[in-house]
Design goal:
Length: 107
């Protein structure tokens, strides 16, 4: 189990541009496959189902232009947050799979 201190330390290490650049290179190599996993996870979670379609329509049809822009921005921000959270979960799971594969390869 990862402690809060270990998690905080690991996040701090990501501020090192070189460490983060390596993670970016790995993600870029895996991006096409990861995109499929992310899309499947979002679909399974119902994030972009009927309720999303209804909310998109509501935001796009708000009569007042300023309120419409605010509603669309809010929807986009929520989509970005959700995508990021699910994306992090996918990355975390991938990390676990890679560690498991490495451990199995050592035995």
């Amino acid at each position: 189990m990862t402690t809060d201190e270990q998690l905080e330390t690991a996040i701090e290490r990501l501020l090192d541009a070189e460490r983060f650049a390596e993670a970016e290179r790995l993600v870029a190599r895996a991006a096409p496959q990861l995109q499929k996993v992310l899309a499947a996870a979002l679909a399974e979670g119902g994030w972009f189902g009927e309720s999303h379609a209804a909310e998109s329509l509501r935001a796009a049809t708000v009569p007042d232009p300023d309120e419409r822009v605010a509603a669309v921005r809010s929807l986009l921000a929520e989509e970005a947050r959700m995508g990021m959270m699910v994306g992090v979960a996918v990355g975390w799971a991938l990390h676990g799979e890679l560690n498991e594969s490495a451990t199995e390869g050592e035995s």
